[in-house]
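Before surveying the methods themselves, let us examine one representative protein, written as a sequence plus integers encoding its fold.
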Amino acid sequence: MNQTTITSSQLKTILHSKRANIYYLQYCRILVNGGRVEYVTEEGKASLYWNIPIANTSVIMLGTGTSVTQAAMRELARAGVMVGFCGGGGTPLYAGTESEIEACWLSPQSEYRPTEYLQNWVSFWFDDARRLAAAKRFQEVRLAQIERHWLSSRMQRETGFEPASSSLLSLLSGARQRMAESATHNELMLQEAQLTKALYKLVSQTVKYGDFTRAKRGGGHDAANRFLDHGNYLAYGLAAVAAWVTGLPHGLAVMHGKTRRGGLVFDIADLIKDALVMPQAFIAAMEGEDEQAFRQRCITAFQQADALDLMIVTLQETASALAGNPT
């Protein structure tokens, strides 16, 4: 039987926005076995091999006790899979030597990445007014996603999450108006921070979590804070994929400032973090779930909401709308 050679172009026939798999792996080796990328776990004297369908995978996060071979990284790069090294439970992200989110993602390398959106992006990025307009577009999408998912019948049916619709709609309406009227990035960031604080209060009241204070990354010991960190890192993985697909460098942020090397990843992730990660984190905390169960909650929510597709489309539409159109 002749062995069939799979080309790089064949591996990428599944659009990134439609790929189903996000992996978090720990205590295993990733290698190529019989032409397939697999991860190997040890159970006693036996080694168990598990296939990774790389053509249908967008992100792999490598946790504690993992290693990956050069051959496996070659195949992952050919398939356009984003890889990140991280600590236990998915946080924090490290890559090889740096601990900042923006430095962690090992992007598949290709000299044939698209340039259309990059050219449109840089045509407006150096103009403060147009960059602010782009940030406001991102916030509009963010608010729409919160309203769509927090009040959805699916969310209520599957999780029992039912926030007071009048309170939520009033909160979003006020934020929408104040953000539209913001004259500077600092004003917009302030409105964003106030909205997020109010959302934490609303979601904690909805699930009867009790008093909640959002801790800085890695500083929270309660379940909700841990799950928020974990879920946000999953969102950062999707955001890095969206930036890679559209060919945009992580430093060209529109919301998180011009000095953060990975600010665009934060900007993109913010499109869906509050809408999808936040409620799931509090629900999972109240249910007493472990990290694996919560991670599956997030991945399912991302898939059902077409989160990666939303990120990519938002980048593409923003780049096209603001290119060459001074405000």
